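look at this stuff:

>
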Amino acid sequence: MKQIIIFIFVCFLHSCGEDKIIELAEISHSDIHEITDVSAAYLFYDETSEKGFELNRKNLISTTNWLVNVDKRLSLKQVIPNIIFLQDKKNNASHKNETAKNYYTCHDLEMNALGFIDFTNIIYHLEASTNTEGVQFQIIYTSADTIKIQSSESNAETIYTTLADFENNLTRLTKEALEPIKLILSFHDSISFQSYMSLKSILINSDDNILIARDEFIFN
């Protein structure tokens, strides 16, 4: 299916006079598989460019739902400033549709189909988080692909070196909690978009006993 997804994007872009490939991030599961009234942006991996990426946003219409197709090989340092740019472009557009949303396009491995992750309300900050007031845990994904869970209440820190270990212990943590757990997320800007989406997929698909802060921090 991965090859089919890439083939779809090659065909579409070739019909526009281009010939580019996007490798979509793979996620375990998405609840969203069909969106209507859409326009799309593409963030390509381009090793021939000094920046390492290319943004194509020519077909975006401010009143539609936006599908943002990001190559999974790009780092957050390359991706997130462009996402912030697109968010500002839509928020500041003269013509708006308050119900229109923004989605990342991914490959849903469970359904073997395209899946979409809503990021409409996420506020990205290009800095480290310094204020965790009102949250119980901060999840920090570091440059070494190490995931830390820091407790805001006891200053305790737990470290996981695989996503599987993190997912298993997150499940245990949420089951033990008597009320919804409030999380804030921080990511090192060197991690790949694939790693970012893998962790977000785990959190989104975990049980309902988790509340994730809208603010996400990208640090270096």
Residues 121 and 147 are 24 Å apart (CA to CA). Residues 125-219 form a domain with the Nucleotidyltransferase; domain 5 fold (CATH 3.30.420). The longest strand covers residues 210-219.
